Amino acid sequence: MYEMCAGVERHGGALVWHVMAKNTATTLCGTRLDRQVDGVNAQRAGHCSTCMALFGKLMTAPPVAGAPAATDH
């Protein structure tokens, strides 16, 4: 599973929404989110283009055989 987390952009320091796998401290683009972000500012933040592109690739990739999401329950 993935979640959206607000943090600074890798280059430039602008506040953006990153994609992060649950139970990790690093976003898909490789940014480590260490500090809390003000909720009001996060509401206006854009999206990290690198995270969004990588997330799109993950969601359109064929399932990996043997992965939990690829098995029938």
Radius of gyration, rounded? 14 Å
* Main sheet: strands, sense, barrel: 3 strands, mixed
- The number of distinct β-strands equals 3
**Percent of residues in helices:** 10-25%
Strand order of the largest sheet: 1-2-3
Summing up helix and strand content along with how strands pair, one would put the structural category as: alpha+beta
Give the averaged pLDDT, no decimals.
Answer: 83
Low confidence ranges: none
**What general form does the structure show?**
elongated
State the distance separating the first and last CA atoms.
Answer: 17 Å
- Beta fraction: 15-25%
Number of helices: 2
Compressed to H and E, one letter per element, the order equals EEHEH
What's the layout of helices and strands?
Blueprint: E1 2-8, E2 15-21, H1 39-43, E3 46-47, H2 49-60
Parallel strand pairs: 2-3
Antiparallel strand pairs: 1-2
Report on this model:
This protein is of the alpha+beta class and 73 residues long. 23% of the residues lie in helices and 22% in strands. The chain is elongated and about 40 Å long.
